[in-house]
Design a protein that fits this description.
Elements lengths: L11 E6 L5 E2 L4 E2 L9 E8 L3 E3 L2 E3 L8 E4 L5 E5 L2 E7 L3 E5 L2 H6 L3
Antiparallel strand pairs: 1-4, 1-9, 2-3, 4-7, 5-6, 7-10, 8-9
């Protein structure tokens, strides 16, 4: 059986959406259930190479494994080998979820 790999192009990322109970991190972040158009949550499983714009290379800020929030209508849904994934432009990502330890380790 032939196996396939999806490789995002340009400034796009491949995301596996995570169904949540609208809260995570031991209740530190709680999203109300009253509005189903709230941003979605997922894990980055693939990252494109970045962009060349005006002759300059613009690298990606996201990495595989990053947990992100993105708008509900920001993604294109693709299915490969019966697995549903989302393709999103990096600029459509609303936020990256990090632990305090991860945030403190980043350069100022």
């Amino acid at each position: 059986m032939t196996q396939y790999v999806l490789e995002p192009m340009g400034d796009r990322v491949l995301v596996e959406a995570i169904e949540t109970d609208r809260s995570f991190a031991d209740g530190q972040l709680l999203l109300p259930e009253t509005n189903k158009d709230l941003p979605m949550y997922g894990v980055v499983v693939g990252v494109g190479p970045g962009l060349f714009e005006d002759g300059k290379y613009i690298p990606m800020n996201l990495e595989v494994g990053d947990r992100i929030f993105f708008g509900k209508f920001s993604a294109a849904q693709v299915t490969l080998d019966k697995k549903s994934l989302l393709v999103i432009k990096e600029s459509e990502v609303l936020a990256v979820v990090r632990t305090i330890d991860e945030r403190d380790m980043e350069p100022a």
